[in-house]
Amino acid sequence: MIREISRAGVTPLQTGIVPRGSRVEIFQQIYEFFLVLGTLVGVVVIGYMLYNAYKYRDGAEDVYRGEEDELPTLGELPTGGGGGRKLFLSFTLSAVIVISLIAWTYGALAFVEDNPALDGEDAIEVEVTGYQFGWEFTYPNGHTDSTLRVPVDTPVELTVTSRDVFHNIGVRELRVKSDAIPGQTTETWFIGERTGTYIAECYELCGVGHSDMTAEVKVMPQDEYDDWYANTTAENETDGGNETDGGNDATGNESARLVGTA
Ligand SMILES: [Cu+2]
Fold it and tell me: What is the 112 CA–ligand 1 centroid distance (Å)?
């Protein structure tokens, strides 16, 4: 479950038990941790319950049921075995498990929230603007695109906003999601660990074209990305998309017009 991740010193190495790495890795570890622990707790609780149900079944012999005067009468709560020791033990154990879970998850999520991509010098920054109904990606050199191209294994810092109504950009496979709110910017990050094409979708019902509000996210090999980026300028639009008419075309499929260069 614990893997070492080093990306040219960009992402901190796993330290201790709190997971570090890309969002995909962190959320995967949280999922696995909860699955294992939840299964374990479930097995212990249900197993102990069944064990006692069998042990104290009606007609069982050789079972100590307490002195006659210790037995609870109808309507009285039983004190539990050993003068409440069992109750205390199970309560303490549950508290330790629950508090550790909260602390561990908090540590993992604090790292995600902390935007570790900012620490790395080779992190790339892209501004994302949502509009009815599409996404616009602006690179540091001023180049604007309707496809998000990023190099593989590199932290990407997104600064997200909207120019009309509330939107929310998310890429499921990359475990990244962020509000796009007019007049405000929201920051998030991700690392594409495998090359390929992913789909960014809008996750905030924003109008009639909401479900068509997608954009391609291309995670490219570093050299291909460098070649592509070297040929971009503030003016050109490498994929043929047109932000002004694309924005009002509620039913048009933006990606149908894409002529990818990647
Ligand atoms: Cu939207």
Answer: 24
Alpha carbon of residue 44 to chain centroid: 29
102 & 157 share domain = no
13 lies in some domain: no
pLDDT digits (tens, 9 = 90+) for 123-164: 899 999 999 999 999 999 999 999 999 999 989 999 999 999
From ligand 1's centre to the CA of 54, what distance in Å? 57
Neighbours of ion ligand 1 (CB under 5 A): 167, 202, 206, 213
Mind listing the pLDDT tens digit for each residue in 85-103? 878 888 898 899 889 889 9
Would 152 be classed as within a structural domain? yes
The domain of 93 spans: 23-114
Task: Indicate if 244 and 142 belong to the same structural domain.
Answer: yes
Query: The whole model's pTM is what?
Result: 0.70
